[in-house]
Design brief:
Blueprint: H1 2-30, H2 34-37, H3 43-50, H4 54-73, H5 75-81, H6 83-101, H7 107-137, H8 141-177, H9 180-193, H10 215-244, H11 249-273, H12 281-300, H13 306-329, H14 335-367, H15 371-388
Helix pairs in contact: 1-8, 1-9, 4-7, 4-10, 4-14, 6-7, 6-9, 7-8, 7-14, 8-11, 8-13, 10-11, 10-13, 10-14, 10-15, 11-13, 12-13, 12-15, 14-15
Length: about 400
């Protein structure tokens, strides 16, 4: 009887630990996009208050993405010198500090500085958490990675939907600074659920893989970069595009929130169904087709087809983000190797993605419209389709 009782207690403790750890990961993920996603619905207010041009305003999204890319490239160094617990905790603290700094009357330069700070914080968390997921969940890491990326998109949806309401209540600077609160909560939960400092263990059994010498690494980098570019493009410029067409700020924010909610649904579907598709090319081609269709709606009839565009873009982008990361994780069995590859793919990919909203801002300054930006992104999606055909399954 005592043995059974101890076994039941152990199973309950294991289940409780699993649930608490998963909740901690999801809470961290929810805080990785509000610092960016809350900007778009309030961009007209921010520009009126700070005098930022369209190109300069695009830097509020571009600079964090650049920082995210550089931080991801330093993932191996972060693992060795900070460890997962301290690195993620430092990242969340920087995100909270960046949001708090937006309450200060520092003008456009201060906002840009806060964007860099937020990007550094986000990069620390994103560089280290995939290795945590691979180590914790093993064979289930693909599904858990899908939930993690769904949490990221869920945070963007909440931030976009609440931006206008928070701005009416707290002002645009208060609406941006508000997100320091959930960041602090996530930091505390992380410190509770990951109590022991963890560092990457060296494995003498096999040398590390030199991913830079593999062609597949560069293909995955380009694929992830273009796909993330579509995400950052919508995050930065979809609400301003519709306010420029005469929509109310709240309506444009709700449209962005609807898109990101659709992304969340898509991420959940990927997490639930990805195990049935060991060959990732079929699902990838499907979601790329949806992304291309959504861009076509924005080009041909943005107001009449706003809802279909939102659904198609959300399903495409929301599926593409986790699928791209799962595709990279497929290339390696060991968590250290997978983490090293993801650092390169995310690092170079985010740097590539940072150019997309910047290009869109430049085009808007010169053409007073974003149609050319949607067309350029469509060309990028076609390139991704061509790359996708090369991603045959790898057997370890």
């Amino acid at each position: 009887m005592s043995t059974i009782s101890h076994a039941d207690t152990g199973r309950r403790a294991e289940t409780h630990g699993f649930a608490l750890g998963l909740a901690g990961l999801l809470l961290l993920a929810l805080n990785l996009r509000p610092a960016l996603a809350s900007i778009g619905p309030l961009l007209d207010l921010i520009q009126k208050s700070t005098g930022l041009s369209n190109t300069s305003a695009s830097l509020l999204t571009v600079l964090p993405v650049i920082a995210m890319g550089l931080g991801a490239l330093a993932g191996g160094w972060l693992q060795r010198h900070l460890g997962e617990r301290r690195g993620v905790a430092a990242g969340m603290a920087l995100i909270a500090l960046a949001c708090l700094s937006r309450l200060l009357p520092a003008g456009g330069a201060g906002l840009l500085a806060s964007a860099v700070l937020a990007g550094i914080g986000i990069s620390l968390v994103q560089a280290l958490l995939p290795t945590v997921i691979k180590r914790r969940y093993g064979a289930q890491s693909g599904r858990m990675l899908g939930l993690y990326t769904t949490g990221i998109m869920g945070g963007a949806a909440i931030a976009a939907a609440s931006a206008a309401g928070l701005s009416n209540w707290l002002g645009w600077d208060g609406a941006l600074g508000f997100w320091a609160i959930p960041a602090c909560v996530a930091l505390l939960i992380w410190l509770v659920t990951e109590p022991a400092a963890r560092r990457t263990q060296s494995t003498a059994a096999a040398p590390p893989i030199n991913w830079l010498q593999r062609r597949r690494t560069w293909e995955l980098l380009a694929f992830f970069g273009l796909g993330t570019g579509a995400f950052t493009l919508m995050l930065a410029w979809l609400p301003p595009f519709y306010t420029g067409l005469g929509w109310e700020r709240a309506d444009a924010g709700f449209l962005m929130a609807g898109l990101t909610v659709t992304e969340v649904v898509a991420g959940l579907l990927v997490s639930a169904l990805i195990g049935r598709f060991p060959d990732r090319r079929g699902p990838l081609l499907l979601v790329l087709s949806l992304l291309l269709a959504g861009l076509g709606c924005l080009i041909l009839a943005p107001e009449a087809l706003a809802v279909p565009a939102c659904i198609a873009l959300g399903l495409g982008i929301g599926s593409l983000f986790p699928l791209s990361m799962i595709l990279a994780m497929d290339q390696a069995e060991r968590p250290a190797d997978a983490g090293a590859l993801l650092s390169l793919v995310q690092g170079g990919g985010y740097l590539l993605a940072s150019l997309v909203p910047l290009l869109a801002g430049y085009l808007r300054d010169h053409f007073a419209d974003l149609t050319q930006a949607w067309m350029a992104m469509g060309v990028g999606v076609v390139v991704m389709m061509m790359l996708c055909l090369r991603f045959r399954p790898i057997r370890h």
